[in-house]
Specification:
381 residues, four-stranded antiparallel β-sheet, 3 domains, Butyryl-CoA Dehydrogenase, subunit A, domain 3, Butyryl-CoA Dehydrogenase, subunit A, domain 2, globular, alpha+beta, Butyryl-Coa Dehydrogenase, subunit A, domain 1
Length: 381
């Protein structure tokens, strides 16, 4: 696998993996039980510069040549430690911040992007609504023209980082009759009058990852906060959202790796009938099948990330990476729990957490069925 990486990427992976082993993984069970956002760890990781992987040095980023692949590796390693924490970082340091870097004014970059890269501010991206998920053209959050800017009203659902965010990029329609062409992106400061958190949403997976319902009631947004200006639209963000599918695949892989590693250790330590259960062919075959699924997912996801770095079209590859990684790693986690047997159902063992968390990549960012629809369209079907 190392043959895919140059010295810089190998060193980058080693550094983030060491941080995960020393700072994140030891707290994984506690984070899961507490279901609380670990701000101290978030700020620490930001202070080390990892939130700047995708951004140029002028904004405090690292300006890495193969940024998408590096970010994919980071998401994988963080998820190996704790998927809930990894999903916080994945959203914050990709789509939520990328929209400002790409289409924000210099003033917005100074006020929001640079502090976000440092870990001093937290970002969110709000598109999904109670009645609009995969069908973004059905958004009801309305942006109406008013003196000096826009007035936003509507409700957003399943917003990652929603209750803890300092800023949110909100997708809203300026003209419902135009479908997706009428949807534009607005940067909203969460201290704005009329903005509120409807509720924090309870989940059975990715504990510690904040998810919320957001309410906007006549929230004023100045013209400079229309990202991309008057000609900008939601369609500008399509490639960013497409690349995010690769990052979500990486989250699945990291969690699957953690489940596999735990099951392998357990198979060597647990004895039945006078010998380790790993000596039984049924367990051996299960572990080999798990490894095969993980390696398939890793190789294809890295390939998709490398294509993204080259600037090539990635619509099909990103969708397939998400399908392969999410489904394969969910199966890996189910097999891992079965190897633990009855202990797999106990909260004192991590197998149940790995399995619960493995359902997030199956849903977050688009279900496997939606990914298949996207790939089928690319085939001309």
């Amino acid at each position: 696998m190392d043959l895919l990486f140059d010295d810089n990427l190998r060193q980058f992976r080693h550094t983030i993996a060491r941080w995960v082993d020393e700072r994140l993984a030891p707290h994984a069970d506690a984070l899961d039980r507490a279901d609380m956002f670990p701000r101290e760890l978030f700020e620490e990781l930001g202070g080390l510069g990892f939130f700047g992987v995708l951004f140029p040095e002028e904004y405090g980023g690292s300006g890495m040549d193969r940024g998408y692949l590096a970010y994919t590796l980071m998401c994988e390693e963080l998820s190996r430690g704790h998927m809930g924490f990894a999903s916080i970082v994945c959203m914050h340091a990709s789509t939520a911040s990328h929209t400002i870097a790409s289409w924000g004014t210099d003033d917005l970059r100074r006020r929001y992007l640079i502090p976000a890269i440092r870990g001093e501010k937290i970002g969110a991206f709000a598109i999904t609504e109670p009645n609009a998920g995969s069908d973004a053209a059905a958004l009801r959050t309305r942006a109406s023209r008013c003196a000096g800017g826009w007035s936003l009203s509507g409700t957003k659902m399943f917003t990652s980082n929603g209750t803890i965010a300092d800023f949110v990029t909100v997708a809203a329609t300026t003209d419902p009759s135009l479908g997706l062409k009428g949807v534009k992106l607005f940067l909203v400061d969460t201290k704005s009058e009329g903005f509120s958190v409807g509720r924090k949403l309870e989940k059975f997976a990715i504990h510690a990852a904040d998810t919320a319902e957001l309410v906007l009631k006549d929230v004023f947004v100045s013209d400079e906060r229309l990202l991309g200006g008057a000609d900008g639209s939601f369609l500008n963000a399509y490639r960013t959202l497409t690349v995010d599918r690769i990052f979500t695949a990486a989250l699945a892989i990291g969690n699957g790796r953690a489940a596999y590693d735990a099951a392998l250790r357990y198979a060597k330590e647990r004895t039945q009938f006078g010998k380790p259960i790993g000596s039984f062919q049924a367990i051996q075959f299960r572990l080999v099948d798990m490894l095969a699924k993980l390696e398939q997912a890793r190789l294809y996801t890295y390939y998709a990330a490398m294509l993204a770095d080259s600037g090539a079209p990635i619509t099909t590859e990103a969708a397939l990476a998400k399908v392969i990684a999410a489904e394969n790693c969910n199966d890996v986690c189910q097999k891992a729990l079965s190897i633990f047997g009855g202990y797999g159902l106990m909260n004192e063992y991590p197998a149940q957490r790995f399995l619960r968390d493995s359902f997030f990549p199956l849903v977050g960012g688009g279900t496997p069925d939606i990914m298949r629809v996207i790939a089928a369209r690319q085939l001309g079907l």
